[in-house]
Design goal:
One of its GO terms (molecular function) is metalloendopeptidase activity. Keywords: Coiled coil, Signal. InterPro entries: Cell_wall_metabolism_enzyme, Dup_hybrid_motif, M23ase_b-sheet_dom. The chain has 407 residues and is α+β, with helices and mostly antiparallel strands. The chain has two domains: 202 residues, no CATH class; 187 residues, Glucose Permease (Domain IIA), CATH 2.70.70.10. Helices cover 61% and strands 16% of the residues. The protein contains six helices and twelve strands. Strands 1, 4, 5, 6, 7, 8, 9, 10, 11 and 12 form a ten-stranded antiparallel sheet that branches. The longest helix has 76 residues. The radius of gyration is 33 Å and the shape is flat. The two termini are 50 Å apart.
Length: 407
């Protein structure tokens, strides 16, 4: 019976340990994301401050402000998640404290009864008489074993009381720390919401000034779109040439400029890449998407649309572009209007890291997931450090945000 009881306790302990471990991992994940968002907001804020000393486009300013607002909203959301997680942990700890107190009360009562009983029969003479009154040697032996087990059980209960008392003290201390942490998060969120309100007010002022000259800003955006289209066409040309060269070198006899001829190894790599859709790491350590994939209406100049074959990620100055998956560098080329590009082939998939200033790899290199490929260039005019990240399957463009981890 005791064996089953202790097995049950062990299982409960394991389940509790797994639960605590999972909560701890989630807490670390949220804290890392919160710190990352704080760094993004500071980076954008510093960029906006430095740009105020220059003659900058109002559109650039409103785009920067829009990014800061989105990051601030994300920060509030993550901080709320942290506070909610702490609340759940505090509730669980309070329940556990109640259970431990009840267990401790029963253990102490049981221990007190044992001590009292032991006291009544503690004399050496009564123990010897208990043994000598046995009707046989076997019965005497069993009585001796009983006395040993009784003594050991009493010691075990004493240790159990110490353990439970220590657990209770630890949980109480943990609960106090959790309350402090939650209070800090709530206070931080209050300040963050105040900054958000100020930024939104500034945004409305800027938007109002843009509305008055919408035609002028629409022309500016159209010029920007032409530059994007030119870069996208150059990327597509490089991809077509890479496909054609691969097919010539493979000896397959294919002259296609649209589809890679794959070896069995390349097919396996492509299948592995495809199975990781939605789980690929970001191509930079930290950053925020400043331009999404496909056609999108401008959030301020609503008469204008922007189209992109990939996404743009604003990152920290001197940030590194990182391979999102293992593969082989198929191209390293200069792209007019976007510095240099590194293309990494994963079977018939290609990940493209454009707008790099420094390059750390060369054509033909095998790269591993997370490997630094180059340093992202910083614009002299806007002060932004922006990676142009694209994904293709053969010559078919894909939405990178559907493939990378959702932050």
């Amino acid at each position: 019976m005791k064996s089953l009881f202790f097995k049950g306790l062990f299982i409960v302990f394991l389940l509790f340990s797994f639960s605590v471990s999972a909560q701890s991992d989630k807490r670390k994940e949220l804290e890392n994301r919160r710190v990352q968002l704080q760094q993004e907001i500071k980076r954008i804020s510093d960029l906006r401050t430095s740009n105020l000393r220059k003659e900058k486009s109002i559109l650039t300013e409103v785009e920067n402000l829009d990014q800061q607002i989105r990051s601030t909203e994300n920060l509030i959301r993550v901080t709320n998640q942290q506070a909610n997680l702490l609340t759940r942990e505090m509730d669980a700890n309070q329940r556990k404290i109640g259970e431990l107190r009840e267990e401790l009360k029963k253990l102490k009562e049981d221990y007190a009864r044992m001590v009292q009983k032991s006291y009544k029969s503690k004399s050496q003479q009564s123990r010897i008489m208990f043994l000598l009154s046995a009707e046989s040697f076997l019965q005497a032996y069993k009585r001796l074993q009983y006395m040993k087990q009784y003594t050991n059980y009493r010691k075990q209960q004493g240790e159990e009381i110490k353990t439970r008392t220590a657990q209770l003290q630890s949980l109480n201390e943990s609960l106090a720390e959790q309350k402090k942490a939650k209070d800090r998060l709530v206070a931080e969120n209050r300040k963050t919401r105040a900054r958000l309100a100020e930024n939104k007010k500034s945004q409305q002022t800027l938007i109002a000034s843009i509305r008055k000259k919408e035609g002028q800003f629409a022309a500016e955006l159209n010029q920007k779109q032409q530059e994007i289209n030119s870069i996208d066409r150059e990327i597509e040309r490089i991809i077509a040439e890479a496909i054609a060269r691969n097919n010539r070198e493979s000896g397959s006899g294919s002259t296609s400029r649209e589809i890679f001829e794959l070896t069995p190894e390349a097919k396996a790599l492509a299948a592995n890449f495809e199975s990781n859709k939605g789980k690929l790491p970001w191509p930079v350590r930290s950053g925020i998407v400043s331009m999404h994939f496909g056609e999108q209406r401008h959030p301020v100049v609503t008469s204008t649309t922007i189209n992109s074959n990939g996404i743009r990620i604003d990152t920290e100055k001197a940030g590194k572009a990182k391979a999102v998956f293992a593969g082989t560098v198929s191209e390293v080329q200069a792209v007019k209007g976007a510095n240099k590009a590194v293309m990494v082939r994963h079977g018939d998939y290609i990940s493209i890291y454009n707008n790099l200033d420094k390059i750390f790899v060369k054509r033909g290199d095998d790269v591993s997931i997370g490997q630094d490929l180059g340093e992202v260039a910083t614009s002299n005019s806007s002060g932004k450090t922006t990676l142009h990240f694209l994904l293709y399957k053969n010559n078919q463009k894909l939405d990178p945000e559907q493939w990378i981890i959702n932050r």
